[in-house]
Amino acid sequence: MAGSTPITDVRDISRIGYGFMASQALFAALDLDVFGRLADGPKSLLTLAGETGVASHRLIALLSACVGLGLLGQDGDRYVNAPAAATYLVRSAPMYFGDYFRFQIARQVYPTLGHLVDLAGCRTLLDVGGGSGAFSIALCRRHPQLRATIVDFPSVRPTAEEMVGEAGLSDRIRFVEGDALATPWPAGQDAVLMSYLLSAVAARRVGELLKRARQSLGPGGRLMLHDFMLDDDRSGPPVAALWLLNAVTIDPDVASLTPGWLTEHVVEAGFEDADLHHVIGGITRLLLARAP
Question: How far from chain centre, in Å, is Cα 134?
Answer without folding.
Answer: 10
